[in-house]
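Appendix B. One record, verbatim.
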Amino acid sequence: MTSEIEELLKPLRLAVAEQGELVKKLKAEKAPDIDVTRAVAELKARKNTLENKIEELIPKENKIDRSKLEDLLKRRFFYDQSFAIYGGVNGLYDFGPMGCATKANLLNEWRKFFILEEQMLEIDCSMLTPAQVLVASGHVARFSDFMVKDVKSGECFRADHLIEAHLEKMLQDKKLAAEKRSEIENHLRQVDNMSASDMQEVISKYNMKSPITNNDLTEPVAFNLMFATSIGPTGTIKGFLRPETAQGMFVNFKRLLEFNQGKLPFAAAQIGNSFRNEISPRSGLLRVREFTMSEIEHFVDPTDKDHPKFTNVENVEVVLYSAENQVSGQSAQTVKIGDAVRSGLVNNETLGYFIARIFLFLTRCGVKKEKLRFRQHMSNEMAHYACDCWDAEIHTSYGWVECVGCADRSCYDLTQHAQHSGVKLAAEKQLPQPKVIDVIEVVADKGSIGKLFKQNAKIITGYLEKLNKKQVEELEVRIQNAAEGEVELEIDGQKFNVKANLLKVKKYQKTVHVEEIVPSVIEPSFGIGRIMYAIWEHNFVVRDAQRTYLALPPVIAPYKCSVLPLSANEEFKPFIKKLCN
């Protein structure tokens, strides 16, 4: 950026830095959650103001005419809205011959660049997923947005988007009183943190209506973004269309570990479609209801996240927009990935290795490196179980768009699925020296329990075998107190009274040569549709003010070579056929 532009941005950067310091101070002082939440919301608002100003100051010659690009893409049938002859459905798109060829080439290159070169284990899992899998992963409880409906037409809108659009329109009124303006700006800062009741209060206060019909709106309700269905003719097995491909790799971890001869690290990969029932899809291919993902789950020892091939990429320079840069209002910085890992900016070598590989893949396929950055999640964005997370963001006419996520998810997913399924999802690690450990377990009289409880006997013995040390010690106290009486066991909502003399707690020592570990997971996740759109924008050319075309890299271009006769003379046909063959 020029010094003139930086001078214009200086007060905005200072405003972000000032608010960032306040957020740090409140967290250090362990201030009430409500105060921290408000401060973070204000920080996000100031960050957005800064980002929007930067967008405004981009020279006109560096911007593309999106309408011309979209006209080219639809005219040449790269893609178009699905079921267009019936009026179309928002958020659903069909790829034509050119789009299919581009997508196939991109996926083939992804497969070669990651799966083959890194010797990953590719799998292809069912898109139809039983509910209990997504209960374990947390999607059933947390994968939702707030929605409002037009009371007459039934049209649905995302509540946060509707509120933002309405309030931003109000701010455009130059006659708006200063006090009212300040109040509206405060509401805008809080939108991301509003509950359903908070949203309803704002909607009522400003008399918000349907933006299409001007009808009244219903109260906001949480809407789960997964497509629900039932499996089988009885309808008793509840299921969903998967919202991501990752869960299929986690539930197959045990089989994949066996295939890899029990050794860590290893990576699984999957290419496939996922589904999210977006309330109001928009921005073309950037927010859709059915989309292709390419995901990698790299399973690694949580105590050793070094990567054997890290030296191959340590000198790759990438643009990193760290959490600290964001909080202090600074711009993103170009850093060698090796330096970023050594300084602790990027958490570990494996995460750094994949950031560099993602950069190399995207730029090879046509993303302009000056329009690519990796933005670190701030603490309020990061999942509680994640160690570090960076998004590959590509600059388009829509602004910076997240196209690839690269996260260190620790051992959260495997732990959740192990707890909910009752199946151990762990690897064994050879110890440098054998060690003696204390073991405490419940030994049940299986024969007597089998006679007394019949078909429920396996439920009881299985439950007892899974108890951890603390649970066994608690049960031991209850057994001793019960003497000749009974011990009540509650298992998945069922209660069983088992005679105390059928249960014994055994304590002993044993020598072990291996230890069990639950691997951490480094997860690069690629949104193929978003990447394709970004590549089309970056390689869009307008010549002589009217003629438009795409100058795509050969690796993903739909056509590598064309033989085009300049004459319809029949004598040319044998030569053309020979050239084509």
